[in-house]
């Protein structure tokens, strides 16, 4: 069973979330020169309902 480590701001501690409970998302932003920048993130919820987001490299995003 794979787990992914997130940082919970409310608890001020690192938490382990099962990889089956993690979803992927991308954020697109337009730069001043008109090009598009894509940020890759993993999202999950902790046991207390707190939303967790972890920004990762594209290689990690594609592997999960």
Attribute tags:
64 residues, globular, three-stranded antiparallel sheet, single chain, 5 strands
Number of domains: 1
Strand order of the largest sheet: 3-4-5
Q: What is the N-to-C succession of helices and strands?
A: EEEEEH
The average pLDDT score comes to 94
Major β-sheet, in short? 3 strands, antiparallel
Structural class: mainly beta
Q: Between the first and last Cα atoms, what is the distance in angstroms?
A: 13 Å
- The proportion of residues forming helix, as a percent range, comes to under 10%
Tally the helices: 1
- Number of E strands: 5
Could you give the topology of this structure?
Elements: E1 3-8, E2 13-18, E3 23-30, E4 36-45, E5 51-56, H1 58-63
Antiparallel strand pairs: 1-2, 3-4, 4-5
Could you characterize the architecture of this molecule?
- The structure is a single chain.
- The chain has 64 residues and is mainly beta.
- It is built from one helix and five strands.
- It has one domain.
- It is 9% helix and 56% strand.
- The strands form two sheets. The protein has a three-stranded antiparallel sheet.
- β3 and β4 form a beta hairpin.
- The longest helix is centred in the last third of the chain and has 6 residues.
- It is globular.
- The mean pLDDT is 94.
